[in-house]
Specification:
Blueprint lengths: L1 H15 L22 H5 L8 H33 L3 H6 L2 E4 L8 E6 L2 E7 L2 H8 L21 E5 L10 E2 L7 E3 L4 E3 L5 E3 L11 E4 L2 E4 L1
Antiparallel strand pairs: 1-10, 2-3, 3-4, 5-6, 6-7, 7-8, 9-10
Length: 217
């Protein structure tokens, strides 16, 4: 057949030129782009699956970082707590001691505690009876007189109006206690608001009485 003759002629031609002919091949020729001097293979460090030294180094770095972080957090917390603790001069101002022997009955002494005015009232028997007889239904901020004075003879209140923080005037007002001229609040001799815009009674600070000694704070 004609096709067989053509194939035989091509085979004969390829044998003469020593260049074999590849029939029915779909593979492209592959060129080698590797290193010429093979330096990569010479300097390559073999990595094995059981290299424990690398794992130990990783664990050491992680553990060290966590230790440094924990130490820094602890120091920051200690510093924060220390700044919140009161110093010696602040603790000294936390309480104040006063002598009440010089306060006559029916009079009021104004002292200073933590930067705030404090009224110390030496009440008479008539004043005690009058304030004790006040009906709670008449009060804006109902509170019995016996609940505001540990010793009926002595009333200790902060000299700050509960409306806007002004300082009331002692021995003034319609009820003989204190009067705030800023907006017209009236307090009785128990420090209870009886008239005006003030919503609450005068605040009572923590205090203790020991004979003629009064300790506030």
């Amino acid at each position: 057949m004609l096709s067989q003759r053509i194939i035989n002629r091509l085979i004969k031609q390829s044998n003469i030129n020593n260049n074999p002919v590849h029939f029915l091949s779909t593979k492209a020729p592959v060129e080698d782009y590797g290193s010429i001097d093979h330096a990569f293979e010479k300097d390559k460090i073999p990595r094995t699956a059981g290299d424990n030294s690398r794992k130990e180094f990783t664990y050491f770095m992680l553990g060290g970082a966590r230790f440094v972080y924990a130490t820094a957090t602890r120091l920051a917390l200690i510093k924060f707590v220390s700044t919140m603790s009161a110093s010696a001069d602040v603790l000294a101002l936390a309480s104040a001691e006063f002598n009440t022997s010089g306060i006559a009955e029916g009079s009021t002494l104004t002292v200073k505690w933590r930067g705030k005015p404090v009224f110390i009232r030496h009440r008479t028997a008539e004043e005690i009876a009058k304030e004790g007889a006040v009906s709670l239904s008449l009060l804006k901020d109902p509170q019995a007189d016996s609940d505001r004075a540990a010793d009926p003879k002595w009333l200790v209140v902060l000299g700050i109006c509960t409306h806007l923080g002004c300082v009331p005037i002692s021995g003034a007002g319609e009820y003989g206690g204190w009067f705030c001229p800023c907006h017209g609040s009236h307090y009785d001799i128990s420090g209870r608001v009886r008239k005006g815009p003030a919503p609450l009674n005068l605040e009572i600070p923590p205090y203790k009485l020991d004979g003629d000694k009064l300790v506030i704070g």
